[in-house]
Amino acid sequence: MFSVTADPEPPRLFVAGEALIDLVAEPDGRFRPIPGGSPANVAVGLSRLGGTASLLARLGTGAFGSTIRAHLEADGVDLAHAVTTSDPATLAVVTLDEHGRAAYDFYAEGTADWGWTADELPDPLPDGTLALVTGSIAAAREPGASALLELLRRERRRGEVSLVVDPNLRPSLLGPRDAVRARWDDLIGLADVVKVSDEDLEWLVPGAPPAEVAADWAGRGPSLVVVTYGADGALGVTSAGTSVRVRTPPVDVVDTVGAGDAFTAGLVDGLRLAGLLGRPGEDRLAGTGADGLRAVLDRAALVAAITCARAGADPPTAAQVSAAAH
Q1: Which terminal residue of the chain has fewer beta carbons within 10 Å of its beta carbon, N or C?
Q2: DSSP state at residue 90
Q3: Helix (H) or strand (E) holding 138
Q4: How far apart are CA 2 and CA 292, in angstroms?
Q5: How far apart are CA 261 and CA 314, in angstroms?
Q6: What pTM was computed for the model?
Q7: Which of residues 111 and 175 earns the better pLDDT score?
Q8: Residue 134 near residue 152 (C-beta atoms within 8 A)
Q9: Which residues form the Carbohydrate kinase PfkB domain (predicted)?
Q10: Does residue 313 lie within any of the structural domains?
Q11: Structural domains counted in the chain
Q12: DSSP secondary structure string, 192-228?
C-alpha cells in the first residue's frame, strides 16, 4: 500500500467548466440561491481537502455572478485564470424527492458558462500544474466545448499534466445522443483518469454492464476508470487490469446534491497525495496495485458520503475526512 504524506505547498490543480447558481426548492415553495455547478463544486472540494485549486470559469458581473465569485474566493479557490463576462449566470432549479435525490431544470441560453474562446484559456497551463479536471455541461455544450477540447488536446500532446474527465451528463442541455457519445469518445481517449456514474453510463451506452464498459475505456487511453454506483459504492479499473470494488460508508442522507462532485474531488486529491498525478506519476497510476487503488477509492467514497449527510454541495475538509475515518 502507498503511503500518504501532506505537501507543505501543494502543487496546483486546475478545474475547467461551469460555475452557476442552484435554485434549491424549500419546503415553503420558495427557492434559495446557492452557488454550484459540477466543476466549481470540484474546485471547492479540492481546496477544502488541501489542494491548490484554480478554476477556469466564465463568471458574470451581475448579482448572481458576484455571489458565485464570493463563494469561490471564500473557499480559497484561485480565480486568477477565470474570465469576467457581462453574460448572466446559468441557473439550475433543483428539486429533491423523498429520498433526497436531486433533479435539475436549467435556464442556460445565452449564459456565461458556454462562451469560451480559445484565447480565454491558458496555453499552456502554468508550470507545476499536476492535473486538469473537466467534464459536465461545459465540456459538451457549444460553442465553448470545442475550445475546452482543444485545451485537453494541447495538454495531452505536452504530456506534463494528468487529465481527469467526468461526463456528469445533463441530457436536457445536450444535443443528440450520438453526437454526445462521439464527443465523450474523444474526451475519454485523451484522459488519464475517467470518473463516471452508472447513471451516465446507462445514458451513453444503454444496457451495457458498467464493469465491461470500464474495462473497455481503460483500454482506450486512460490509466484509470472509476464507475460510481451511488449508495452501492464504486469500481476502479486500471489499464493494467487491476479491478477494485469499494462500498459507500453508511450515513443518514440529507440529500445527494454535489455527492458525485465530492467523490471526484476526493479521487483527485487521493491520487495527488499518493504521487500518482502529473508526468512523473503516469506509469505508477497505470500500475497501481489493488491495495493502493482501494485506499484512494475508499477515501473518495468517504468524502462523498460526508457530503450526502449535509444539505447541498458542502464537501468536507481534510481534517473532517480524517476524523470520520477513525
Answers
A1: C
A2: P
A3: none
A4: 6
A5: 10
A6: 0.94
A7: 111
A8: yes
A9: 13-315
A10: yes
A11: 1
A12: SEEEEEHHHHHHHSTT--HHHHHHHHHTSS-SEEEEE
Query: Minimal CA–CA distance to 298: which of 237, 247, 243, 223?
Result: 247
Burial class (CB in 10 A: 0-12, 13-18, 19+), 193: buried
**Residue of 65, 16, 13 whose CA lies nearest to 39:** 16
Query: Which neighbouring-strand residues pair with 166?
Result: 135
Mean pLDDT over 134-150 rounds to 93
Cα–Cα nearest to 23, from 88, 93, 97, 89: 93
Instruction: Using alpha carbons only, give the angle 97, 102, 103 rounded to the nearest 5 degrees.
Output: 95
Alpha carbons 231 and 315: distance in angstroms, whole number? 17
CB 40 within 8 A of CB 18: yes
Can you read off the three cell numbers belonging to residue 7?
A: 505537501
Q: Which of 95, 97, 105 is nearest to 26 (CA)?
A: 95
Q: How many CA atoms lie within 13 A of 319 on its CB side?
A: 0
The CATH number that applies at residue 123 is: 3.40.1190.20
Confirm if 88 and 60 have CB atoms less than 8 A apart.
Answer: yes
**In a domain? residue 134:** yes
- pLDDT single digits (tens) 243-276: 999 999 999 998 888 999 999 999 999 999 999 9
Flag whether 99 is in a domain. yes
In angstroms, rounded to a whole number, what is the distance separating the alpha carbons of residues 169 and 204? 9
Q: Phi and psi at residue 194, in whole multiples of 5°?
A: -120, 130
Model confidence at 9, in pLDDT bands (50, 70, 90)?
low
Q: State the residue range of the domain holding 193.
A: 12-325
Where are the alpha helices (H) located in 6-55, listed in sequence order?
Answer: 38-48
Question: What is the C-alpha separation between 118 and 112, in angstroms, rounded?
Answer: 15
Give the C-alpha separation, 223 to 309, whole Å. Answer: 31
